[in-house]
Design goal:
The protein has 2 helices and 2 strands. With 78 residues, it is of the alpha+beta class. It has 2 domains: 33 residues; 42 residues, no CATH class. Strands 1-2 form a two-stranded antiparallel sheet. The longest helix has 32 residues. It starts with a helix and ends in a 10-residue tail after the last helix. The relative contact order is 0.07.
Length: 78
């Protein structure tokens, strides 16, 4: 019986590794396609960076806001 538990864990790990590999390839393609510069104008300040850096910055801001305000995630069952 312990062999079947090990096989399930190994299969799950392999599937996660394949999905992670596909996501990495897609992220690299996305970064290459969005390497053009984008300018942000905010309160008179102009910042010019590649588009993929802006998207990563917005993703990080979203993570920070989501962790600061956990009540947006919905109600927990008691």
């Amino acid at each position: 019986m312990s062999g079947s538990t090990h096989e399930k864990t190994g299969g799950s790990f392999a599937a996660k590794a394949i999905i992670a590999g596909i996501l990495v390839v897609l992220a690299v393609i996305f970064a290459i396609l969005n390497s053009g510069s984008t300018t942000l104008n905010l309160f008179g300040l102009q910042l010019t960076l590649p588009g993929w850096i802006w998207l990563i910055a917005l993703l990080l801001i979203g993570f920070i806001v989501g962790s600061l305000f956990p009540w947006f995630s919905g109600r927990k069952k008691s």
